[in-house]
Amino acid sequence: MVRGTKRRRNSTEKPKAVVTLHREDTALVDDQVTVGDSQCTGAKPYARLVGIRRGVATIDIFDDVFVCGRGSDETPVNYNFSALTHDVGLYRFISKVQFAINRATDTRRIYLNDHSRNGTLVNQEMIGKGQTRELMNGDLISIGIPALIIFVFETTDDSQYPEELTKKYHVTSHSLGKGGFGKVLLGYKRSDRSVVAIKVLNTQFSTRCSRAIAKIRDIKNEVEVMKKLDHPNIVGIYDWITVSKYSYMVIEYVGGGEFFSKVVDSKYNRMGLGESLGKYFAYQLIDAVMYLHSVGICHRDIKPENILCSDKSERCILKLTDFGMAKTTTAAKMKTRCGTPSYNAPEIVANEGIEYTPKVDIWSLGCVLFITFAGYPPFSEEYTDMTMEKQVMTGRLLFHSQWRHITHETQKMIKWMLTVEPSKRPTAVELMSTEWMKCADCRTAKQDILKNSAKAVKTTVGGQQTTVAAATVISTTVTAAATITTGGGGEKGVAAEKKRNQ
C-alpha cells in the first residue's frame, strides 16, 4: 500500500458534493508570490497554502491562528483575497471571514474552521459554517462549490513523498483512481500550477501482497515508450521518478473519464453512439494508431477502458493511454500472448509462438469501433453457442437490430478490420486512405483536434512564460488519464447489454 495518514472528520460532515472543474480556474497569475514571510523573520512556516487559482497568492503560515476572507475594519484577516475583486465568479462566494487555519498547541494537529456563509470545502466535501476539519498534507481547499479550488494545503515538515518529486510538483491527497500497483493522485506543476496526474507505483518486495508490486523493468518500458510519443490523441508523459520503494509517473491529466463509460451511457439507450458520432471518434483512434505504428510502437492492449475522454461533452477529444504492454516493433519480435481476451487478435489467441505484427492493434481497434457503433461487443463469453476463443479464431460476428441504423459502408469497414487473416487485414494507413474517412464527421474531428491543440498556448503569467491549457476540463469524479489498469472486466457490462438487446 502507498503510505498515507488517517484523517479525522467531524461527525456532522455533509455528504460529498462533486462538480466538474475547469483548468483555467486553477491557473496561477502571481507565480511564487508568498504572504507571511515577514511575520516571523528567520522562523520556519509550519504549513503553506499554495495558490492555484488565478490571482491567489501562495501563503506561508507561521501563526497558530491564520484567518482568510474579505475582511473589513471590524473583522481584520491575515489574507483578504483583495486580488480577486475582478473574479466575480469567485469573489461573490467569499465571506468577510471565510475560514481559519488553527494549529492545536498540544497535539500540533492542524484544522480548518469554516466561518463562511457559502461554505468552504476540503477535497470536494463541504465543511459547513461552524464546523471543523483536520487538514492533511495535499488537501484541496475550495470556496462555495467544489469547482472553485483556490489552495493546496501543504505541511512544510511532511516527508510522505521524495524530494525529487515534491521539488517539481505539488502532490495533492485527492485520489483520481486506484489499482493493483498503487494509486493516481491529482497534482500541479510548481513551475506554472498546470494540472497533472501522478501515478504512484509500489515497487517494493512484499510476500504478503506480491501481486500488488510493479516491476521496475515493466515501468521503465512503459516510460520509454511514452517518451517517444507526441500526438494529440495519446496521453503524454512529463516525468518519471524512482526511489527505493516507489516509482512516480507524472503524466498528462485527462478529465472526461473512460471511453467505456461513454459507449454504455444510458442516454444512448445502450445501443451504441450511432453513425455520425462513431465516425467522429473512429477518425481520432485510427489516426492515433497510425501514428503509433509509424514510429514503431505496437500498443497491444487497445480497449475502451484504455481510451480517455478530454471532457464530458458529447464530441470530445480521445486519448489513448496505458502503454504497459506496448512494444517497440523495431527492436524485437512480438510473440507474447498478452492483452485483453475479448479484444485480442486471432494470431494472439492462437498462442502458437509465431511472430505477429502491429496489425493486432487494428483488430483490437475494430472491436472497439464495433462497440462504439452498436453498444455491444463482437466477441464475448456471454455467447453460449461458441467459446469466445472460437468466436475470435473464426471471426464470427453477430449483427443485431441496432446495425440497421449503421450504413453498409461502415459495416464493411468494421468487418475489414476484423479480418482473421492478418495479411488481408488493413493497416492504419490503408484505413485512413479510404473514402469512409473523408466524411464530414471525420473532417470535424480533425478540425477539433487542431483547435484543441491550439488552445495550449504560451501565456505571460507573473512576468514569466507558462503554459495554460484553457480548454482542459478536470472532473474529480472519474479515473484520470493515469488510470491504473486492474484487470478490465468492463466488456462484461457491454455483453450484458447485448444479451438484453437480442
UniProtKB/TrEMBL annotation:
<dbReference type="InterPro" id="IPR017441">
    <property type="entry name" value="Protein_kinase_ATP_BS"/>
</dbReference>
<dbReference type="InterPro" id="IPR000719">
    <property type="entry name" value="Prot_kinase_dom"/>
</dbReference>
<keyword id="KW-0067">ATP-binding</keyword>
<dbReference type="InterPro" id="IPR000253">
    <property type="entry name" value="FHA_dom"/>
</dbReference>
<dbReference type="InterPro" id="IPR008271">
    <property type="entry name" value="Ser/Thr_kinase_AS"/>
</dbReference>
<keyword id="KW-0547">Nucleotide-binding</keyword>
<protein>
    <submittedName>
        <fullName>Protein kinase domain-containing protein</fullName>
    </submittedName>
</protein>
<dbReference type="GO" id="GO:0004672">
    <property type="term" value="F:protein kinase activity"/>
</dbReference>
<dbReference type="InterPro" id="IPR008984">
    <property type="entry name" value="SMAD_FHA_dom_sf"/>
</dbReference>
<dbReference type="InterPro" id="IPR011009">
    <property type="entry name" value="Kinase-like_dom_sf"/>
</dbReference>
<dbReference type="GO" id="GO:0005524">
    <property type="term" value="F:ATP binding"/>
</dbReference>
<keyword id="KW-0460">Magnesium</keyword>
<feature type="binding site">
    <location>
        <position position="199"/>
    </location>
    <ligand>
        <name>ATP</name>
    </ligand>
</feature>
<feature type="domain" description="FHA">
    <location>
        <begin position="66"/>
        <end position="127"/>
    </location>
</feature>
<dbReference type="Pfam" id="PF00069">
    <property type="entry name" value="Pkinase"/>
</dbReference>
<dbReference type="Pfam" id="PF00498">
    <property type="entry name" value="FHA"/>
</dbReference>
<feature type="domain" description="Protein kinase">
    <location>
        <begin position="170"/>
        <end position="437"/>
    </location>
</feature>
